[in-house]
Amino acid sequence: MSKRPLTLRQRESRAGLAYLSPTLIVVLVVVVLPILWTIMLAFQRIRLINLRRAGVFGEYTLSNIELVLTSPGFWSSLWTTVVYTVGSTVGSIAIGLVAALALRGRFRGRTLVRASVLLPYVAPVVSVTFVWTILLSPQFGLANNWGARFLGWDRPIAFLSQREYAFDLSFFGLFSWHLEIPLALLTVIAFESWRYFPFAFLFLLARLQAVPQDLEEAARVDGAAPTQIFRHILLPQLSAVIALLCVLRFIMTFNKFDDVYLLTGGGAGTEVVSVRVYEFLTARFDVGAAAAQALVLATGLIVLLAIYLRFLAPRVEGEE
Amino acid sequence: MIIVLLIATLFPFLYMLLLSVRPIEQLLQDPGQLWIAPSEWTLSTYREVLTSVDNGGQGFLRFLANSAMVSLAATALTLLVAIPGAYAVSRLRFTGRRQVHFLFLSVYLFPSILLAIPLFVLFTRLGLRGSLGGLILVYIAQTVPVSIYMLRNYLSTIPESLEEAAAVDGYSRLQTLRKVVLPLAAPAVMANALYVFMIAWNEFLFALLFLVEDRADWTVSLGLAQLSGGIEVSKTVLMAGSVVLTLPIVIIFFAAERLLTEGLTAGAEKG
């Protein structure tokens, strides 16, 4: 039996796959197979106790999905997830943009300042959430103490455990509104914007530095105001990065678990879907329902991504 | 504007540091006071947080050792897997290259809570829950795609002619990778190693799912989160724990800031 010698091209292809195989195996075993298994679990009535009986050929049923879609609190938690995600995405990109514009010029200590601004993003999530909880704590937090001392708050505000915060807003006694805001959710959004603005900042700064200087100078010579320069020269240059950031931040925040879990434990109107999945898994040991919810989360994400790819992506890709 | 930004980002860290050296009675008495004289500072919080449980402390030294072990192992193994992978993706033409790319992107963007369920179930079944090995495996899978992406960007800047020259000299492909490509890519590999280390060190969800039962297995993140829920441990001691958790990351970050940000934003200009 003589085999034909492999062509150079074939050998390269083999080497390529061989070099990549450890990666593929790890990803397959720890990512792809578990995902497939989740999909199977989502269609079986499984709790951790009867898991042993469950196999590939178990009884398939839609009851989990039905249970999830009709269970109290699911739709509101999906809505919470959307509000939280959109709020945090917009917040982090807006702050990141301000930071990138503020720190792009030359000034003393620039490198150090730029690096320092990245700290919220690189620091461990557990310690930053912990510091925020202490900072905002009604008992011994600095925020409430200073609020009472300098802003005249008459009682401490429980930023992370109060669902609604009602207050009256009046303008010189002329108009007066009674407002109710979802306090805990807004606090979590504020935290998220704070923690992830450095991510947006990094990308925006990198892009800003690639903007040709002479364009801006020419505009300045022509007497354009800074806001005009921003709107007509910088913003068009940044739009592709901003679109990319929106997608990335949206996906990542949509899936986020630890930040919300650590800040509020999902209480006070901040129960996002991933925290709910965790609750189903560890508190109720209802594996099937947990998997079904996770699946709904992932499906939602895929639908949104598909919409994005359909309507917005061509513009972004055109920039490449 | 710059000052405002700096205060907004750094204040929580400063607050963490200041609280960690304050005596707890002093904090409860006057929570609004930010600065206390250095003569009043106490290091007993750090002593308590680091002393082992047997000696009446919180045992963070043990947690630190766990975290260090998990993170170092995950880093080493990720590199071992990712370097050949990145080389293949950047240099070799093989069938299915595009699909691989897509696979990695989806791993990167996939909800980790979705992965958590089957892995939780699987590890429970295999009795791997509570083992650091299982955790390391999960971390490798999570960091490999990003690593390959970061390294690929760098490897493709190395001129191909160097490798051709090595081939002419009779080097095999593996030798070329080890003796020619790797030394040239050292800065990128370094940046990537630090990045993986930081991800593994900061990780919380999987540590919570896999290690929560046995205190001896806890990582620093998990230990801090578990202990902060209760009331037994005073907040200032836990602040010292936060500092202990954060400090290695801050040191690594400032030491290699340039390498890290360049690695992260490579390709950002392209959009």
Task: Please provide a written account of the structure.
Chain A has 320 residues and is mostly helical. Chain A has 2 domains: 46 residues, no CATH class; 211 residues, Orthogonal Bundle (MetI-like fold), CATH 1.10.3720.10. In chain A, 68% of the residues lie in helices and 5% in strands. Chain A has 14 helices and 2 strands, in the order H-H-H-H-H-H-H-E-E-H-H-H-H-H-H-H. Chain A has a two-stranded antiparallel sheet. The C terminus of chain A is likely disordered. Chain B is an all-alpha fold. Helices cover 74% and strands 0% of the residues of chain B. Chain B is globular. The C terminus of chain B is likely disordered. At the A-B interface, helix 1, helix 3, helix 4, helix 5 and helix 6 of A face helix 1, helix 4, helix 5, helix 6 and helix 7 of B.
Overview features:
heterodimer; A: 320 residues; mainly alpha; MetI-like fold; 2 domains; two-stranded antiparallel ribbon; 14 helices; 2 strands; globular; B: 271 residues; disordered C terminus; MetI-like (chain A); cell membrane (chain A); MetI-like_sf (chain A); UgpAE/MalFG_permease (chain A); membrane (chain A)
Which helices and strands, and how do they pair?
The complex is a heterodimer of chains A (320) and B (271).
Chain A: H1 8-42, H2 63-70, H3 74-102, H4 110-117, H5 119-122, H6 125-135, H7 142-150, E1 164-171, E2 175-182, H8 183-208, H9 213-221, H10 226-254, H11 258-264, H12 273-282, H13 287-311, H14 313-318
Antiparallel strand pairs in A: 1-2
Chain B: H1 2-20, H2 24-29, H3 44-50, H4 60-91, H5 97-109, H6 112-126, H7 132-155, H8 160-168, H9 173-184, H10 186-202, H11 205-211, H12 220-229, H13 235-255, H14 257-265
Helix pairs in contact in B: 1-13, 3-13, 4-7, 4-10, 5-7, 6-11, 7-10, 7-11, 8-9, 12-13
Subcellular location (chain A): Cell membrane
Membrane topology (chain A): Multi-pass membrane protein
GO cellular component, one term (chain A): plasma membrane
